[in-house]
Write a structure and sequence with these properties.
This protein is α/β, with parallel strands linked by helices. The chain has 18 helices and 9 strands. A hairpin with a 7-residue loop joins strand 3 and strand 4.
Length: 469
């Protein structure tokens, strides 16, 4: 006769199996899945010769088979460990084969599976979310294939003939680009890229059929500042397009380099912008802090777009950059996925993957002089970036915005931008942005010569900023 102890053993065995799956197969299965998709990515790569492609396929196949064999062995061992106690007890204590028809057997298995609740996600991304992000974002050839499929549904000639001027918000990180972009954005006026499009950044419409969040619930973003975001918030996500089609050739170990864009790639970029359009009357709006790396090259083919470039007090911004550097160092050291995620999206502003803008001016000497833990280093970052900006300000399509104007006179600023863009903006849909207050330290840890140089550039920028009426 079956007794209660049998069902307790079934429950414990089920719990053991699922705990084992999580603890033992979490990484092996992740490696198996990613190496499987990597095989497809290699097959889709048209940039290499067939001989080299065959070598890569065989090399990756060897890795894939190792991961497959490891997963099979671990699952087999888990099954033996989980089933063995139940079989032994039922045969030698109950003198019957394992009973599997009773409702109590299935209830015991169900309650045993609740052991999975012990592994609640402690980060913003679940195991399956991390796996999906890795599969899609880490395989450029797969992303290209998805993009080509996506644009097949669009009339290329119609896209080009109806191309409208677009708006890019840029600036050195911590200048207020996210807050300003959110203030500008109105879905009746603009279309853009949102968190909901991740990880299928090159196939947003296909992904939208599967995942289309309606919730507008907001939370403070990972930066820990006052900027609230939801899954429908727009962010700096278009850089992935350039990373994929340029194959990261403008990114090296320590810097992001100026580079040229071909007309062919620019046309693809226009098509990409259109993938996010829901209304024919809207304009493309994006935040991209790396846009200056290709600004001059794009200007050779297209001068219709508008660049809203924001700047901030050098010392204030340097402090903010240092805070975020320390913040993301901690996050990336705690969870490697955060580092991978920022690398995939081209976010190299701070953290373990921080890279300098290689604008090839005299300020690079200073960047190499200081450690990233020093405030002077981040002042050098500011100086390097905005020295290059000064050079570009002769172009009429740049709208230079002072962070202080955005904070103190947002309505007047929106009106001034509206006039410059020649687009009717909605100016009352957002409350005034109030940046988080921090206790500021002294300036004695900063190289005074650097601060003097930076303040001269800052004064020059103020003279050239958009005027408020």
């Amino acid at each position: 006769m079956i007794n209660n102890l049998y069902y307790v053993l079934v429950l414990l065995s089920t719990a053991l199996f699922f705990i084992g799956l999580v603890l033992l197969l979490k990484k092996p299965f992740f490696n198996l899945a990613t190496s499987s998709v990597k095989q497809l990515d290699i097959i889709l790569d048209n940039s290499i010769e067939e001989k080299e492609k065959d070598k890569r396929i065989l090399r990756n196949l060897n890795t894939l088979l190792k991961h497959l064999l490891l997963n099979i062995i671990l699952i087999f061992l888990l099954l033996i460990c989980a089933i063995f106690p139940v079989l032994i007890y039922s045969k030698y204590k109950l003198n019957v084969l394992a009973e599997t028809s009773s409702i109590y057997f299935y209830l015991a298995m169900i309650f045993g599976s609740f052991s999975l609740l012990l592994f609640r996600n402690k980060t913003d991304y679940s195991y399956w979310s991390k796996l999906l992000h890795t599969i899609i974002l880490d395989n450029y050839n797969l992303s290209k294939y998805l993009f080509e499929r996506e644009i097949k549904g669009f009339n290329e000639c119609n896209i080009l003939s109806t191309k409208k001027p677009y708006v890019i918000v840029t600036g050195l990180a911590r200048a207020g680009t996210t807050a300003l972009t959110n203030r500008l954005f109105d879905k009746n006026i603009f279309h853009s890229i949102s968190y909901a499009n991740v990880p299928f950044l090159l196939a947003p419409n296909s992904w939208k059929r599967i995942y289309n969040p309606k919730s507008k619930k907001k939370k403070v973003r990972a930066h820990g500042d006052q900027v609230l975001v939801s899954e429908n918030s727009i962010e700096a996500l278009e850089e992935y397009f350039f990373k994929v089609f340029l194959n990261d050739n403008y990114i090296d170990k320590s810097s992001l380099k100026l580079h040229n864009i071909t007309q062919e790639l620019l046309i693809k970029y226009y098509m990409y912008q259109d993938l996010f359009r829901e209304k024919k009357t809207t304009y493309y709006l994006a935040k991209n802090n790396n846009f200056l790396l290709r600004y001059e090259s794009i200007m050779e083919y297209d001068q219709q777009f508008k660049l809203i470039l924001i700047f901030r007090s050098p010392l204030e911004q340097a402090r903010s950059l240092l805070r975020q550097h320390e913040n993301f160092l901690a996050k990336q050291n705690e969870d490697k996925f955060v580092l991978n995620y920022m690398n995939w999206l081209g976010h190299h502003e701070f953290g373990n993957n921080q890279k300098q803008f290689s604008f090839e001016n005299e300020n690079k000497v200073y960047l190499d002089k200081y450690d990233k833990s020093e405030l002077s280093y981040w002042l050098c970052v500011w100086l390097n970036y905005y020295t290059y900006v000064i050079k570009l300000l002769e172009n009429d399509n740049i709208i230079l915005v002072h962070f202080d104007d955005f904070i103190k006179n947002p309505d007047k600023l929106m009106k001034a931008i509206e006039v410059s863009l020649e687009i009717d903006l909605t100016r009352n849909s957002f409350s005034h942005f109030i940046p988080k207050k921090y206790v500021q330290g002294g300036t004695n840890t900063v190289d005074n010569n650097l601060l003097l140089k930076a303040n001269k550039i800052y004064a020059n920028l103020i003279l050239k900023k958009i005027e408020l009426n």
